[in-house]
Amino acid sequence: MLGDVLSFLRTQYKPGPGQFLQIDPKIIVERMDLRQRAADRARAGQPAADSASLDEVEQEIESTIRSIAAEDQARTYDQVSTYEQRLRGADVAGSAVDMRVIARQAESDMESMLLAVKGDLRVARKEVLERERTLETFRRENRLQRPAHPPRGHFLFAAVIVLLFAAETLPNAIILGEGEELGIAGGYTVAILFSLINLSLGFAAGRWGWTQAIHRKLLRKLFGLALATACLGSVLLINLALAHYRAAVEGGMASGAAAAAVIPLMKADPLALGDIKSAIMVAMGVISALIVMLEGWFWDEPYPGYGEVSAHLRQAQARYHDLVEEKLDHLKSVQEEFVQKIQVERSRLRDRRLEIPYVMQERQRLVARFKDHLTHLQDVGRQALVVYRDTNRKARTLPAPKRFDEVWHLNGLAPIEVAELPPIPETEYAKANKALEDSINKLQTAYEEAIRWIRHLSDSDPDAPLLEGKAPHGAPPQV
Known about the structure:
Blueprint: H1 2-12, H2 25-31, H3 34-43, H4 56-89, H5 92-141, H6 155-176, H7 184-213, H8 218-250, H9 255-268, H10 276-298, H11 306-395, H12 426-458
Helix pairs in contact: 2-11, 3-11, 4-11, 5-11, 5-12, 6-7, 6-10, 7-8, 7-10, 8-9, 8-10, 11-12
């Protein structure tokens, strides 16, 4: 009977954590069939008038109530244990120590990162200074007062060369194709070869001839003059030779015979061009070569080696500037990451501090609810016993036991007592919160000092000797 009652109660009612089952005494009475059983026992003269202890039905009632109370007590102890675990986990003093350790670790990591960044930037800055000194030495040795010409785009130069090549090749190909055995294709082949040689000589005169001619060293100056003169002379000879070749082809000679006749004609009278058309073609070829010569001069910095040294400096400066931006972005991300981590820990510390009073209040409420629940169970048991005893008394022919008038008590289940925890260590909390706040300020200060250090590094020589005990004006403190 006891098992049936408890099974029914557990099935029909499922209290949540910290909640207790409110039992209707009618359920106990109905499920245990107390009225019928009381009447049956009364007709049998049970319990005896002189009985001093509970009979079997009363014992079932007491066992039912006691089983429910014991189960609820076990659940209450479990919940109290859970609250105590939460209180231990919300230990502000221990958490405060951990927070200070995290703050110091963040500062140490930021300092290590700054040291690594400074090392990389110092190396990059040294390279820039070395390139600057190299450029200055080059300018001093070559007596250059002007800066190097900046790099130029070659697209326009290349387009002009292509147009000159086409303008020179097309008419030559048409004229030369008349005497070629392969026709216009053969004419194009010869015209292309002549144009490539003509334009290449013009470009070489400007790019390597005249640029060497302005060099400070005499040998290189003489070499440049000789090269430029040779290239321009070759341009003139090639265009005159091409004019004699065109004249021979137009005179009806085959390509082979015309090619063989060029050298004798050049020796006999190099300026005998035949007609105005040949003179125009010679002038056009020479002008094309002169234009390409100017493009060779302006292709890059004309003074030999000046553009290369300047380019090395620009590359070093670009690498240094890119590295500065990269390192600053990295330091900013690291600083934000550390600050975010510290702010999360501050929130956790604040939540733990606020959780302790809440958990303690919930624990006290749980204990008070369990105490009230024991009173409720005792009342349910008393009402069930009253129903049983009154029904038994009415159905009896013999006097009822005097103990029926006694009030039943649910003994053996004392209220749960919990130990009071010490007050929240506000001093430790304040110290931890102050340490985290100071750490955030230190991280921000370290980032700002890094910016000042980089600005100072960009304006000074990292290898310059300092007076002992003194730092350059405006230099940030060393980290």
